[in-house]
Every structure is written in structure tokens, then in C-alpha cells.
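User: Let's play a game. I give you a shape written as C-alpha cells, and you guess the letters that built it. Ready? Here's round one.
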């Protein structure tokens, strides 16, 4: 079922974000060579998030918008708006920190922005699972 795939994608994306977060707590992982690896990992996360959002839009939000259940439809519209805003913020973040040298030039700001970005990502995934995925599973 598509919801299982999307939930697995949430877990995978959060696993990668946790790995990056753990690296940021380790000063040895903040040298130029390690920052290159970190940036590569962030690119992987970005790619997976992009694919996930496309799949979610096509398979969840578009279908929920057409639902006969007004509460589900409203919930989906609200969460989609939030996710669209988050996606735009993430794209700006990813663009700002697009190279290891950008990160190295202002490591503290990168760490702060990354922590906030990943916290917001986790909150949104939890909201989607509780507000959309679970109700859809109960309807199936």
C-alpha cells in the first residue's frame, strides 16, 4: 500500500537527518573533508525528500482533496499548505548550503539552521502520519 511506502520514506529521511544531526555534534566531523561528506549526505536527503513529496502529492493530497469526507479533505489541504511552505524553506536552505565551503564559512549558522529544519521536518511527518495516513488506513 502506498501509505506504507510513504511511511517507510519518512523513516528513511529521518534516519538520514538524524545521522547528519549526530555528525554536527562531533567536532571531528566538521573538518573540510568531513563537511564534503556531510554535504553529499544532505544531497541524498534532499533527493529523497523531493521524490517523497512528489509521491505524496500525487497519491495522498490530490486524492484527499477529492474526498467525500470534509474533515479529511480540510486536514489534507492544511497539511499540504504546511508541507509546501516547508518544501520552499528546505529548498532555500539547501541552496544556501549547497557546498561544503559554504558550510565551512559559517558552521554555527549551518548547525543552527539544520537543527531547526530537521525539527520542523519531523513535526510535519508526525502530523501527516497522524492527520492523514492514519485516517486513510482506517477507511481502507
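Assistant: Ready! My guess for every position:
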Amino acid at each position: 500500500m502506498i501509505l506504507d511506502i510513504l511511511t517507510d520514506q519518512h523513516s528513511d529521511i529521518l534516519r538520514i537527518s538524524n545521522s547528519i544531526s549526530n555528525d554536527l555534534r562531533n567536532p571531528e566531523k566538521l573538518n573540510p573533508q568531513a563537511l564534503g561528506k556531510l554535504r553529499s549526505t544532505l544531497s541524498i536527503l534532499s533527493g529523497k525528500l523531493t521524490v517523497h513529496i512528489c509521491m505524496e502529492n500525487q497519491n495522498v493530497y490530490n486524492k484527499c482533496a477529492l474526498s467525500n469526507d470534509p474533515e479529511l479533505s480540510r486536514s489534507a489541504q492544511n497539511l499540504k499548505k504546511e508541507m509546501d511552505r516547508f518544501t520552499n524553506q528546505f529548498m532555500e536552505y539547501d541552496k544556501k548550503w549547497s557546498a561544503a565551503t559554504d558550510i565551512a564559512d559559517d558552521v554555527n549558522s549551518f548547525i543552527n539552521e539544520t537543527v531547526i529544519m530537521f525539527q520542523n521536518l519531523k513535526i510535519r511527518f508526525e502530523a501527516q502520519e497522524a492527520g492523514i495516513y492514519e485516517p486513510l488506513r482506517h477507511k481502507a
